[in-house]
Design a protein that fits this description.
- The structure is a homodimer of 359-residue chains.
- Chain A is an alpha/beta fold and 359 residues long.
- Helices cover 50% and strands 9% of the residues of chain A.
- Chain A is built from 15 helices and 6 strands.
- In chain A, strands 3-2-1-4-5-6 form a 6-stranded parallel β-sheet, sandwiched between helices.
- In chain A, helix 1 packs parallel to helix 6, helix 2 crosses helix 3 and helix 3 crosses helix 14.
- Chain A is globular and about 70 Å long.
- The first copy, chain A, starts with a helix and ends in a 7-residue tail after the last helix.
Chain lengths: 359, 359
């Protein structure tokens, strides 16, 4: 058991309510008055109604958008599971902050405030500004040999994510994208996917940043061994135990943020494989957050497809991206804003003098 | 035969060249230097390389974007093929201009210049400003009884679209979305789909703006009768004949715009069913335009799926929209801009000091 992290989660999940169905129905009724054939905006109508239900209000622009990119290293990289060296985690954090990474470019283009959070990078950032310092430890332990985190480390990471969600709520953000950086973290996400969905390692393990066939086979064997080591039987697993044994510090922080954001009635734009693994853990801890979730995109990682099915989420985009960083979630932000713009700015049949459908 | 429209098309297609493969290769090489795993931006990389090949230059922001919404009425509405009265075409044109329609809202949000073109609305717009007056005729003829257009009308509509593309090029636009409004025009698009793909009317005919089962069945029978009347055999059909017999004035103008835009090396964001019918006709007239096309979205109309397959285009969005107006194309514009932003603004491995993949 995990008493410390259990108490952290109880504090975070306390007071979470599902989105408001009365507001969803009200929003649907409004959508049906707008100058378009009934239902012809497809998922955009679902999105607008979801935002109304989440915010308990008629959605309007501008939305206040932020993306949090949580970074951490992974002890499992000692097993050769990534095409890139661990040093890239730190290098990419500097690239995020300098504005040169994919998520930096997309956030700038789409008016999304970028926050980069060091949850556990194996390196120092003493003189780096523009970075949120929440380091728990310089990377997780090698989960092939021992649990990735102690209960205390897990609790600290969960709370850090939750506190950032509280700060985002206080800053007035109404939608958050949740992304990450961490060489080795698709291995963690694959193990989480196996634990939550009962999938085999073979189905849940992809090529990450670009493994060749032999390395992919070896990574799959590592995931299989991790799952067998920590979870003799894939039944009645506690999501906190899964997170502690095979998670990452960035994944734990994302889980904490997702839970606490739902408590503050903030819409959550989920990114790719890692982000969805954190989301699936959060849902396992508190199913009432489900209505706050929007899947930004479907990544090319095979495990992501399993997680989206597990979560029952249809992604907005399916562009064969597999980058992480929150890039797919930020790319989907203009679609969400479009839904809100249509909801709040379109004319009605009566205001525009447009005839309705024939009886 | 159609000598007038044939000469119009020869004038328009003269000088069209495919996108430049050298520039595409150059762009791909640049993408591989950026701080991301190789190929991890998926279709966004294809898009950026396509824009480079189209423009024969490194793509940069800002892009100059416009959407043209071509409006016209259809004589076939006499057969009861639409859930809405014909008067809605004119009413919606006024709504576009007033800023209250879906495409108006989306164009405003995403910085896309909206042009509304009256190609053949059954109504007068004498005192309406903000509208491009290119009316050929107050609606097409009833194509169940006679060809929808004369050769002269077709030629005039094609040229009007081409001239607007030339004006867009002169205004510096680098990407155009092509949309439409016209009660009855899914019937025209279904007939075009049958003629171009050999599909049955049953597979190519959808519910348009929202027909019930009985009306959908009746519309399918109308499409079947139209195709049988004009095209005894679905082989070796001339696209100009197809357009003249079963097209619409707005569809002809879109076809002219698409051809002439390709000549001016402008990227074309295609919208839904009607827009894709015009595109498929344009490709049948001049296959070298294929590389200029980007499919903005997949509409819920069943015929659109057939046309996208026929054109070999993968859409950027698949959100169950079925509104037309260019709405899906404008909604996809931020994705195209994202691709260009990533291409032009991301750091390279060497500039950011990020380690490359392990050997």
């Amino acid at each position: 058991m995990t008493p410390l992290s259990r108490s952290a989660i109880l504090n975070i999940t306390d007071g979470i309510e599902p989105p408001d169905e009365l507001w969803r129905a009200r929003a649907r009724a409004h959508l049906d008055t707008l100058t378009k054939p009934l239902g012809s905006l497809g998922y955009l109508e679902d999105l607008a109604a979801q935002v109304a239900a989440i915010r308990r209000a008629n959605p309007v622009l501008p939305m206040s958008k932020a993306v949090y990119v949580f970074a951490a290293d992974h002890g499992i990289t000692a097993e050769g599971v990534s095409a890139y060296p661990s040093a890239v985690t730190k290098q990419m954090v500097l690239n995020f902050v300098a504005g040169g990474a994919a998520v930096s470019v997309l956030a700038r283009l789409h008016g999304v405030v970028l926050h980069v959070v060091d949850m556990g990078v194996d390196g120092d950032f003493e003189n780096v500004s523009g970075l949120l310092h929440r380091k728990v430890r310089k990377g997780t332990r090698n989960m092939l040999r021992e649990p990735a985190m102690t209960d205390e480390e897990l609790s600290q990471a969960l709370r850090a994510g939750a506190e950032l969600a509280d700060e985002a709520a206080a800053a007035g953000h109404t939608v958050l994208a949740v992304g990450e950086m961490g060489i080795g973290n698709t291995t963690a996400a694959s193990a989480i996917t196996c634990a939550l969905t009962g999938s085999t390692a073979l189905r849940a393990t992809g090529r990450g940043t670009g493994l060749d066939d032999a390395a992919h086979e070896s990574k799959t064997a590592v995931v299989d061994a991790i799952v067998k080591k920590h979870f003799a039987e894939l039944t009645a697993l506690n999501p906190l135990d899964i997170l502690r044994c095979v998670g990452g510090l960035e994944i734990a922080a994302m889980t904490g943020m997702i839970l606490a954001a739902a408590r503050s009635r903030i819409a959550l734009m989920i990114d790719g494989f890692i982000s969805s693994a954190a989301t699936a853990l959060a849902v396992a801890m508190e199913p009432r957050i489900r209505g706050y979730l929007i899947a930004g995109h479907r990544s090319k990682e095979p495990g992501h497809r399993l997680l989206l099915e597990h979560l029952g989420l249809d992604p907005l985009l399916d562009l064969e991206m597999r980058l992480g960083e929150g890039s797919g979630a930020v790319l989907a932000m203009p679609i969400l804003e479009s839904a809100v713009a249509l909801y709040s700015q379109m004319a009605t049949f009566s205001s525009a003098g447009v005839s309705e459908a024939l009886a």
